[in-house]
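Team,

Forwarding the record for the chain on the shared tracking sheet. I've put the sequence and predicted structure together so nobody has to dig through attachments.
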Amino acid sequence: MKRLDLSFMISFMIVLSTLFLLPLSAMDTIQVKQTKIPVLIEREDNVLFYLRIDEANAQILSELKFQLADNVDLNEIESIKLYYGGTESVQRANEVFFSPVEYISSYSRGSTLKANPSYSIKVAELREPKSEVVLSPNYKLFFGINYFWVSLQMKPTASLLSKINIELKSAKLDYNSALLEFESTNAPHRMGGVE
């Protein structure tokens, strides 16, 4: 009798653990890397986040939800944008990257203030955001690794003393919650200027 009870308990625990783990394993994952670089007030685009999505199961990037900290002066923000940055090259297979190229050139004369149009397709934009930012691109994913990046544009009147503290709180793929896997810790972005 004891042997029967023990085997029943083990079977029951296996079934129970499978039921709880199944929803987690079925969820798609978005890898997230937050930059730790200053936001340049003169730039039309400043990279805040890199997103990496492996289109194994999901078909559409449905939603990204961000939260700006209470101490952020929302009147200084011009817009928050989401760009599609392309797919992964076969030559870089089996390595983890967060972008196929540098989205904003730091050395190409005359091209250091905005996104590289060859590798940046704007898929969502929110002007003059509130503390909760929801971007709903409903962007179709392509086979393989898909890259996205989140950009911030400040108003020219923004103070150099300001800081932007923003967190990616949730995301949806195919209109269902996706797991977020963070490759870096959240840190406020300081302002900077170009002379």
